[in-house]
Amino acid sequence: MSPRRIPALAIVADLVAVVVFAAIGRMSHSEPDNLLGLLATAAPFLLGVLAMWATPVVRAQPVGLWAALTVWTGTVVIGLLVRAGFTWSLPLSFAVVTAVSLAVLMLGWRASRPSCPCGCGSARCSSGPDPGPA
């Protein structure tokens, strides 16, 4: 795969993870099945994803550990704050379920990828194999 495609695929994976999270949440609460409702539910968290993707840490190594933690943490915090701003409510149980669910979805796809020895997350890396301890 071309290294230029990795950031595009990574941001799409993060956005899909948020939409899946919102869809599962709406289904579990028997919300109506419509696209507008899904987008309204996902919007605060999609905003969080986009904000985190504007950071140099994420753009430099989009599938690396620091990028994963940055995107996940920022998505959760921004999403919960924006949602609380609109609903004037933030139940602790919702915050916990949000953090855990998005961790599974956003960190999970990154963890399932083979990574290179330098930690950039690429299956093929110019750093070559890890020589081990000196």
Sheet with most strands: none
Q: Spell out the helices and strands N to C.
A: HHHHH
What is the count of DSSP helices, taking H or I runs of 4+ residues?
5
Strand content: under 5%
- Overall helicity: 55-70%
Class by alpha and beta content: mainly alpha
- What is the residue-averaged pLDDT? 86
Number of domains: 1
Distance between the termini: 32 Å
Extract low-pLDDT stretches: 127-134
The tally of strands reads 0
Q: How would you sum up the global shape?
A: globular
Oligomeric state of this protein: single chain
Give keywords:
single chain, 134 residues, mainly alpha, 5 helices, globular
Structure description:
The chain starts with a helix and ends in a 23-residue tail after the last helix. The longest helix has 24 residues, at 5-28. It has one domain (5-111). 25% of the residues are buried. The chain is built from 5 helices and no strands. The chain is globular, with a radius of gyration of 17 Å. With 134 residues, it is mostly helical.
Summarize the SSE layout with pairings:
Elements (H helix, E strand, L loop, with lengths): L4 H24 L6 H19 L2 H5 L4 H23 L4 H20 L23
In short:
The protein is an all-alpha fold and 134 residues long. 68% of the residues lie in helices and 0% in strands.
